[in-house]
């Protein structure tokens, strides 16, 4: 038997025994703290007594087989749901290392990569819903979910119903054909904290799958799977990659059955993720803990500053004691990330754009989660989708800030100046 053949069969054997044995040993120990697992999960095994710290970037389209028997064995394992690559689209070592690290972070059975956060969401919706099914979606979710509904799910006979996670009684909305409960906590734009354990318990009682978008916490400060969700989704574009240079999505599932379902849909959609992007995301993940800690410190300082500012009507940041979601956040989360929104006291619709244009250190842009600070006006039509916003009196403009890793005093100084520029401009135009 040639050396190549031995390796191919050895590899097939290792993969048959699941992910945990495919790479290094350190992350096999579930008792290790998350900081330790972030550093070690998915590390490459040493070969012949030595090897690099980082997993190599393994790019390929074709996967070569030692012989037809090895090919048949690997195809069989893949068909049975094992994490085996028989073609480039399936992703090789780099992809697998990232999958293992995210699965460890999220506390899941398996992670699947997707080319973007939104494609990860679409993958979950298409894998779990079929014509005639009904899905319940919290009305405060990342807005493009509604586009997936309108442009895709409706055409395929799936009915999506939006509900208010704080006002509606979930139990009364569940129908015999309800298959999926889709949540995001804290929500996009206003960071409404949901009672995920209670919602998930109700859904599970009725045999309804629960999916949660966990992008806000980076998977570090919130564990939707431990709190009752079956699927946890992240736009890895944000905190996991963390440097504003990658588009990536991840889906982590709690069972082999869901892994198989997601895998089948993934293959049918012909999805594929580049090895370089998988590498960059894994590199970002290694420093997730230290980056998020600084995002949190800085964001809390900014949120407290905003809360004390006379031109601000309301600050949305669950780590602030006065935030309506604070008690739930304290119960279910172990930290807060860098997103802070605030509503202006002045109802002039020009307030947000004047304010944002006056900022120096905050770039104007979406897709937060990198090291840099960003500012964006929350579009009124998107805010109007959220029941928590509809209840509020008046409709001042809202600015969403992503607080980066700059020194917080420089950021607060920048905000202070922008407030005074805005006040002067609004007074002159009044
Ligand atoms: C950005 C974002 C997404 C989409 O991620 P992309 O990688 O930009 O496609 C999904 N969910 C949430 C909460 C997001 O903020």
Structural class: alpha/beta
The average pLDDT score comes to: 92
Q: From the 3D coordinates, which CATH architecture of the largest domain would you assign?
A: 3-Layer(aba) Sandwich
Return residue spans where pLDDT drops below 50 for at least 5 consecutive residues: 1-27
Number of domains: 2
The CATH class assignment of the largest domain is Alpha Beta
- At the fold tier of CATH, the topology name of the largest domain is Aspartate Aminotransferase, domain 2
Q: CATH homologous superfamily of the largest domain?
A: Type I PLP-dependent aspartate aminotransferase-like (Major domain)
Specify Rg, calculated over alpha carbons.
23 Å
Order of helices and strands: HHHHEHEHEHEHEEEHHHEHEHEEHHEH
**DSSP summary, beta strand count:** 12
Cα-to-Cα separation, first versus last residue: 86 Å
**What would you call the shape?**
globular
Modified residues (N6-(pyridoxal phosphate)lysine): 238
Cofactor: pyridoxal 5'-phosphate
Region (Disordered): 1-33
Keywords: Lyase, Pyridoxal phosphate
């Amino acid at each position: 038997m040639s050396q190549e053949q031995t390796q191919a069969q050895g590899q097939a054997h290792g993969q048959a025994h699941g992910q945990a044995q495919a790479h290094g040993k350190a992350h096999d120990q579930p008792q290790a703290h998350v900081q330790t697992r972030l550093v070690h999960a998915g590390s490459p095994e040493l070969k012949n007594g030595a090897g690099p710290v980082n997993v190599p970037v393994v790019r390929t389209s074709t996967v070569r087989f030692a012989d037809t028997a090895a090919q048949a064995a690997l195809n069989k394992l893949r068909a049975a749901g094992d994490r085996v690559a028989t073609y480039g689209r399936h992703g090789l070592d780099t992809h697998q290392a990232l999958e293992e690290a995210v699965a460890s972070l999220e506390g899941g059975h398996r992670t699947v990569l997707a080319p973007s956060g939104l494609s990860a969401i679409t993958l979950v919706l298409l894998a779990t819903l079929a014509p005639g099914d009904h899905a319940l979606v919290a009305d405060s979710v990342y807005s493009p979910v509604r586009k997936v509904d309108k442009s895709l799910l409706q055409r395929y006979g799936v009915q999506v119903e939006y509900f208010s996670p704080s006002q509606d009684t979930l139990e009364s909305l569940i129908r015999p054909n309800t298959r999926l409960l889709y949540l995001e906590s804290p929500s996009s734009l206003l960071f409404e904290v949901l009672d995920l354990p209670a919602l998930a318990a109700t859904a599970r009682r009725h045999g309804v799958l629960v999916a949660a978008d966990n992008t806000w916490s980076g998977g570090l400060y919130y564990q939707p799977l431990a709190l009752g969700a079956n699927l946890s989704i992240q736009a890895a574009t944000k905190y996991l990659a963390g440097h504003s240079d990658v588009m990536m999505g991840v889906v982590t599932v709690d069972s082999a059955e869901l892994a198989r379902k997601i895998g089948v849909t993934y293959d049918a959609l012909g999805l594929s993720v580049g090895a370089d992007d998988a590498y960059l995301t894994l590199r970002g993940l290694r420093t997730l803990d230290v980056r998020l800690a600084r995002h949190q410190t800085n964001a809390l300082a900014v949120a407290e500053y905003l809360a004390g500012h006379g031109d601000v009507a309301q600050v949305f940041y669950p780590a602030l004691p006065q935030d309506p979601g604070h008690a739930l956040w304290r119960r279910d989360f172990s930290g807060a990330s860098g997103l802070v929104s605030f509503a202006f006291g002045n109802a002039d619709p020009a307030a947000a754009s004047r304010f944002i244009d006056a900022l120096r250190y905050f770039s104007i842009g979406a897709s937060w989660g990198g090291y840099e600070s960003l500012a964006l006006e929350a579009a009124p039509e998107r805010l109007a989708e959220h029941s928590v916003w509809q209840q509020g009196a008046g409709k001042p403009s809202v600015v969403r800030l992503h607080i980066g890793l700059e020194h917080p005093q420089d950021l607060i100084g920048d905000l202070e100046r922008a407030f005074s520029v805005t006040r002067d401009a609004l007074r002159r135009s009044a």
